[in-house]
Amino acid sequence: MWKNAFAYVTRQKFKSLLLALIIMVMATLSLLSLSLRSAVKAAGRNNFKNITNSFSLQINRYYNQGTARGAGNIKGEDISKIEQSEYVASSTKRINAVGDLVDNEIIDIDPVSGRALETKEHFEKALMVTGVGDSEKETKFVGKTYVLTAGEHLKPTDKHQVLVHEELAKKNNWKIGDKFKLRSNIYDADNEKKAEETVEVTIKGFFSGKNKRAVTFAANYYANEIITDLTTAAAMYGYTPENALYQDATFFVRGEEDLDKVFSNLQKLSIDWRAYKLLKSADNFPALQASINGVNKISRNMGILSISLAMIILSLCLLIFLQARKREAAIKLALGMNKLQIVGQFFMELLLLATFALPAAYAVAWSIGDNMQKFILQQVNRGIQRQLLQAAAAGNLGGGAESDSFNQTLQTLTLNIGAQDVVPVLIGSIVVIVISLLLASYFILHKSPKELLSDVL
């Protein structure tokens, strides 16, 4: 049977080449579809590795507008109640503040026009100060808006330590281990106590990052933000970590507890839940999730479309080609072969073509896969960014690191076609071949040898 299959395939070169090409295209698109989903899954794990099974406590702006400047006003005692829950293994929290840079200079260059800025009166030296318990888990580092380039991340035990932007460090000739002073800004609306504290801090590391769009205020320029410990940030407003108001807090759940179940139980705590809301940490990156979902949707549609079209086209081609082989089928039936043997012969021919088409599909998928993934990701991200820009323009939103982190999309995908992709495509190709062949062989399976011969005479 194999010998006959090989003889027919090599004799009918055009038909064989066309059928092999159909199988190869289907297998190539299927491989690319599966590899794309694998790449997205791996990228998602990498991007969300620091927030898996965690959630955040944020203000509910529908009932709670936050501080005078719109920052979070979460009470430390409410955070402590959640920290003491049996479901929480660890936590990290943030304080947002404004502080003046003493005896040094902020970045005063407009990143859009390149002209010097006249910063608003009383804020000529103002920096955004973000206090964190663990900077590695801070939203902007998790979302890759900021990337640590030198030194070490801040730990919960650190006091009066800071991470500064490379550009700010370059302007002031700072190196790791250098010290500088921060002072409260009495004109900041959130400095309700009119604190006038001065704190000397030590540089523990540098980070990089670049604004994605124009900023409204100089303080929203990435280089004009410093990441520091909770003690330093709280001091800007005359508080301690114990009585300060927090921007938000992130909690890491024990084991594999279901977050919906955790939320349901936490609602029983004596906390004013109208003022706050619980949010799954992955939901803090909606643009990233939209990017992942968008690529997955294209991948899924590509797989369905490739299989459906291949089955239709292969069935039609086989129907045409097998019509021309009615006489051959009738003679074989007359010589004593049964119908399943004849269809089996056709299946062997297709299987022989598949043995050449599938390795070719694997090679083609590797050669074009990387560029295809980049193109799909670019198209998905372009659509998301267009929506974000429209929303920002409508809401007159600024371009600070916090909003850019919130709007971060998936940036890269790594092509990897492994056995987990090849095996399903191999099985799927055989299934498609069998179904297509059965559909095209209907006239053979349901006619007698006499009827087949009469059709060709």
TrEMBL record:
Membrane-crossing residue ranges in chain numbering: 302-322, 342-365, 422-445
Residue ranges that the Swiss-Prot or TrEMBL entry lists as coiled coil: none
Occurrences of domain ABC3 transporter permease C-terminal (ranges): 303-449
Record keywords, A-Z: Cell membrane, Membrane, Transmembrane, Transmembrane helix
Bilayer topology term: Multi-pass membrane protein
Matches recorded under InterPro entries: ABC3_permease_C, Lipoprotein-release_system
Compartment annotation: Cell membrane
Pfam families attached to this UniProt entry: FtsX
Family: Belongs to the ABC-4 integral membrane protein family. LolC/E subfamily.
Protein name per Swiss-Prot or TrEMBL: FtsX-like permease family protein
Source organism per UniProt: Amygdalobacter indicium
